[in-house]
Amino acid sequence: MKPIMLFLIVLISFNFAQADIFNSEKVLPTSQAIVCRDLNHNILEAQLYDYYEAKVLRDININLGSSNVVFLEKALMAIERLKKYDHKRYVIYRSRINDFLSQTLFKENISIDSEEYSGDMIYPKGCKIENVLKIFKGDDLPGNKKYLINSDIWNAFDNNSKAGLIIHEAMLQRNIFTLNYKITKRMHARTFNSLIASDLIKKITQEEYTDFIGRI
């Protein structure tokens, strides 16, 4: 077995273990960030949890171009890597990414509460996990948005984390006509997100990709 395929199997097995702990088929309504604050509760640093977890637990380095590339371009850059493996999924995710900002309400000075997290989660000493995004119920009603984002955390994100949050939600978005292209657990979305946002995706074959996506 090729080292890259063994790595992908271990990666997915780790996330299935998390799924067993969490034991839920539903998509949780919130997305998380690592947030570090000073004694006055001002944000010093914030990072999307997907990419923190990828680096700390799997030693995956995110590569979405230089820091001055805008976040939407970074998100589309990551999705472009899917094109040769999974064109239909690429088209669906690209459309969702392009629609994301028009479906989102940004609010300052709010907290997005949730007692549930998607599996065992770790964070650096002195920081904590906070919810950065919430999926609205009733988003199909006129005038309602799909997402609520804590803009204080969003504004502390670098462009990689902003892009990653958009990709993460594109992977989970419900659509009755595209259910085969919706990942059902946030820990699986985090795994897939970090894969396509890194150079790791460029090293796998079509067969390895198909096997990987079948496992999540």
Domain count: the total is 1
Q: How many angstroms separate the termini?
A: 20 Å
Mean residue pLDDT? 82
Give the strand content: 5-15%
What is the helix/strand order? HEEHHHEEEHHHH
Model regions low in confidence, pLDDT < 50 over at least 5 residues: 12-27
Helix and strand content put the structural class at: alpha+beta
Report on the biggest sheet: 5 strands, mixed
Q: What helical percentage do the residues reach?
A: 40-55%
What is the strand arrangement across the widest sheet? 2-1-4-5-3
Number of helices: 8
Total beta strand runs: 5
The 3D shape can be described as globular
Q: Using only CA atoms, what is the Rg? A: 17 Å
Short note summarizing the structure:
With 216 residues, the protein is an alpha+beta fold. The protein has helices at residues 3-22, 49-58, 71-80, 87-99, 151-156, 159-172, 186-196, 206-215, and strands at 30-37, 43-48, 104-107, 127-135, 147-150. The protein has one domain (27-209).
Overall description:
With 216 residues, the protein is α+β, with helices and mostly antiparallel strands. The chain has one domain (27-209). Helices cover 44% and strands 14% of the residues. It is built from eight helices and five strands, in the order H-E-E-H-H-H-E-E-E-H-H-H-H. Strands 2-1-4-5-3 form a five-stranded mixed β-sheet. A hairpin with a 5-residue loop joins strand 1 and strand 2 (43-48). The two termini are 20 Å apart. Mean pLDDT is 82; it is low at 12-27.
